[in-house]
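Data card: per-record layout.
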Amino acid sequence: MLKEDMMRIFNEEFKSQMEHARNLAFQEAKREGMKEGMKEGRKEGMKEGEEKTAKSILEMFDSGKSPEEIKAYLKTNFIK
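The structure for this 80-residue chain is written out next.
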């Protein structure tokens, strides 16, 4: 009886520790996944912003704006 009780306690403790380790690993993977997702989101947002800026500058050139007007636009909107 004592041997069976010891084995049961050992198995329960082992399962508990394994479950805890699994939960920690899952949390870490989730955290890393969120970090990676945030990085990708920022990259995509920056890329979209750069594309919009480039398009607006090209539109200014196409509409006949002078280089001075374009420089003024860039200074007021992008240089802080």
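Known properties of this structure: Residues 2-78 form one domain. The chain has one domain: 2-78.

See the next section for split statistics.
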